[in-house]
Specification:
Elements: E1 2-4, H1 5-12, E2 21-23, E3 29-31, E4 34-36, E5 49-50, H2 53-62, H3 91-102, H4 131-158, H5 164-172, H6 177-214, H7 225-252
Parallel strand pairs: 1-4
Antiparallel strand pairs: 1-5, 2-3
Length: 255
């Protein structure tokens, strides 16, 4: 069998686990052939040890059941890995045909395919299993972000007169509207970038405490490229939404 690091510590402490033997409750001995990392706590696939399907086939054969032709057992989840470039279209119908060849009486059999990346938020039949909650939180986050953009525009507009002398002096020495516009946009971009860095640091520091209080296992992985894509898109969108109007106002309306 292959066991996780946590299981290895549970059974063998700090001693090397590979080659050791674990005895099951029905007095079967299994040699540990490998130790792998613990699955992430936010993963839908959780396990402590992995055992060969060949052993399950042997156990079922005792009951005169051939695992390769038994389509009536639903005690475990089945994953399919398609060849590169293969289309999943039509595969469920082919699986139904195989099922009916082995169990002609099971006419209500119906196979559905669910992409692995959707497994965490959707059930096997495609129904919601948490995606709606994520959508609600996303909408709330967008509303809060929109309110922050509006507040920033209001504050920038209110402070416009305080910078009138600066803008006037820059125009006197030859600065054009485009130069002033770019200056104010860059200032806003630097402010947003500093705020994003501070926010990432605070989230990273507060995440362990939040998990303990909320009883969750959320993971904030700064090495995840998808997370930085979201952060970059958010900074870009808020920059466009909240910097254009103040920059235009400051560079054009002040004489």
């Amino acid at each position: 069998m292959v066991i996780t690091q946590e299981t290895a510590r549970k059974f063998f402490g700090e001693e090397p686990a590979v080659g050791k033997v674990i005895t099951t409750e029905n007095n079967e001995n299994y040699a540990v052939s490998g130790v792998i990392k613990d699955p992430p706590r936010n993963s839908s696939i959780q396990f402590d040890m992995l055992m060969p399907m060949a052993r399950l086939a042997q156990l079922l054969q005792v009951g005169k059941v051939d695992i390769n032709h038994d389509f009536g057992s639903y005690s475990y989840v089945t994953f399919l890995q398609l060849r590169h470039g293969a289309s999943p279209v039509g595969l469920p119908a082919r699986l139904n045909q195989i099922h009916l060849r082995n169990m002609p009486e099971d006419i209500d059999a119906d196979y559905l395919l669910l992409p692995l990346k959707k497994m965490h938020l959707y059930n096997a039949d495609g129904s919601d299993a948490g995606a709606q909650t994520v959508t609600i939180f996303m909408i709330v986050a967008l509303l809060i972000l929109s309110i922050a953009c509006i507040n920033y525009v209001n504050l920038s507009t209110a402070r416009a007169m305080l910078r009138s002398k600066e803008v006037s002096m820059r125009k006197i020495v030859g600065a054009g509207k485009i130069h002033l516009f770019l200056q104010f946009v860059v200032e806003t971009a630097l402010l947003f970038l500093f705020s994003a860095i501070l926010a990432v640091a605070l989230v990273g520091l507060a995440m362990p405490l939040f998990n303990r209080i909320a009883g969750k296992q959320l993971i904030f992985d700064i090495t995840n490229g998808a997370m930085w894509t979201v952060i970059g898109f958010t900074i870009g969108a808020t920059l466009l939404a909240s910097s254009i109007y103040p920059a235009v106002l400051l560079s054009s309306s002040i004489r």
